[in-house]
Structure of DNA replication and repair protein RecF:
Amino acid sequence: MPIKSLHIQHIRNVADVRLDPSPRINIIHGDNGSGKTSLLEGIHFLGLTRSFRTTQIRHLVQSGQDACLVFAQVQALPGAPALPLGVERRLDGEVRVRHAGQSIELSELAQLLPLQVIDSDTFLLLEGSPSIRRQFIDWGVFHSDRSFIQLWRGFRRVLKQRNSLLKCGKIDPRLRRIWDQEFVAYAEQMTQLREQYIELLKPDFEATLGRLLGGVAVELRFSPGWDRKTPLDQLLEEGLARDLKQGFTGAGPQRADLRVRADGHNAAERLSRGQKKLVVSALKLAQGALFYRLNNRPCIYLIDDLPSELDEQHCRLFCQFLEETSNQCFITCVDPAALDGIWLPQTDVSRFRVDAGKLSHAD
Ligand SMILES: Nc1ncnc2c1ncn2[C@@H]1O[C@H](COP(=O)(O)OP(=O)(O)O)[C@@H](O)[C@H]1O
Ligand SMILES: [Mg+2]
């Protein structure tokens, strides 16, 4: 039961909303422009201090206000007491994150609230750039291995340093070799964790996809970002002239990708739009299922307008998966009837209606 109570202030048209969500399924319905996505952004803001729709805080903060705030009572582990969590961000750049009366770092916050977003952009996972699929992989690695965040930060620092040396055009070979050694050490460790994660994810993905989309053989293949037939230090050495010309590093985990193949072909080219959505759905659901197995606690799914993304039959199947793992879900829709009659009688479902940024219980 991750979020027990929620208080959102000054997020887009949501001036001041309080809700006590269900630990399981929350359905938020309302007309277009009523504030459904804004409420989901509020929850995302609580977990990551930013929106999933914009990178600019000024768009998220309600017009005329100078800050947005979200408070909650959050239960990090089943059986543990709920503790207060508050996130505030001001237009002047100040960010405050407090948990149980103490300031905490962003990585601790992200660990506390494992969020999965599913909106129309998510369905572009297969067609989009590799960076989107790296984010997908790294969400899973971050939540399954505590050492990953340090490796990731260390690697980013070394990559930035190496690239800025490349941009200068002339590098002292001794200095470069030192940076390359560090680069390779981080790269190997990060890649091992990413690879292990994808191996763990595969059975969950296959089981989920088998139920959502039968008859198509879809295969996940992790691509580390360089050709592993050659040691990475050798590739860096051999690619130096090209790297210097480009001004950035060509081989390494910064180029990693998740290749998705359907019937032996690139799934983004091969599958229909609807089939691709089901593959992405299976990937996102599998991540939640694996997270649960590894951490013994559920994720929070923020799902924006599911009925407009999936047809009725697959929308139902998708919801059944959500119901089977004990995730806390916030699902928005325009017509609440689209999500009626899906849930088991014992499932705790709360329904809310949003009107011009104001929330009411719809039960
Ligand atoms: N920074 C802002 N301040 C005030 N209102 C905003 C801001 N940004 C967007 N809005 C308004 O918030 C409303 C709710 O948007 P949204 O949550 O996307 O609606 P829904 O998802 O229900 O269709 C929209 O009418 C939009 O014009
Ligand atoms: Mg919306």
Notes: The mean pLDDT is 95.
